[in-house]
Design goal:
The protein is mainly alpha-helical and 178 residues long. It has 1 helix and no strands.
Length: 178
């Protein structure tokens, strides 16, 4: 048992030693990688500064050129705006006159159509009233006919019920007598 304990302790120390040496080796590798990344970062910063300086100078030239183009465009837009406003005022006046004319024509046409519709509606009311009166009379006659038939059937049924009651009563009496 003691041997097993020595074996486990020895094996554990061997593994710990191996892990420590791998950790040391990885630490050195990471330190080298950090140095390389730092040098690359410095190189990129320097190149970025150069690119920024170049872009700033080009941007300054573009800003000056844009300022002159903007002034030209503004002058041209102001001239076009005045011309369009005058044209728009003319179109508005013509359109208003045309709308007023169409509105008058539509009102006249609408009055004519309204008169025709009122006349047709009046005729339709008279026709519908006559048809409705005919339907009412037909329904009343049919209802009266059904009432009469139901009344006669009811009388016959009541007569049969009385006969059945009489037969039932006589059958009861006969049973009692037996």
């Amino acid at each position: 048992m003691e041997e097993l304990l020595y074996y486990v302790i020895g094996f554990s120390l061997t593994i710990i030693g191996m892990i420590a040496s791998v950790a040391y080796w990885l630490g050195r590798k990471f330190a080298l990688m950090d140095k390389k990344f730092e040098s690359l970062r410095n190189e990129f910063r320097e190149e970025l500064r150069e690119v920024r300086a170049d872009l700033d100078s080009k941007l300054g030239g573009l800003k000056a050129e844009l300022g002159s183009v903007e002034a030209e465009l503004k002058a041209e837009i102001d001239g076009t705006k005045a011309g369009l406003k005058a044209e728009l005022d003319g179109v508005k006046a013509a359109l208003k006159a045309e709308i007023d004319s169409v509105e008058r024509e539509l009102k006249a046409e609408l009055g004519s159509v309204e008169t025709k519709l009122r006349a047709e509606i009046g005729d339709a009311k008279v026709d519908l009233k006559a048809e409705l009166d005919g339907v009412r009379a037909g329904l009343k006659a049919e209802i009266d006919s059904v009432k009469a038939e139901l009344g006669s059937r009811l009388d016959a049924l009541q007569k049969e019920v009385r006969e059945l009651r009489g037969q039932f009563a006589s059958a009861r009496v006969e049973r009692r007598l037996k």
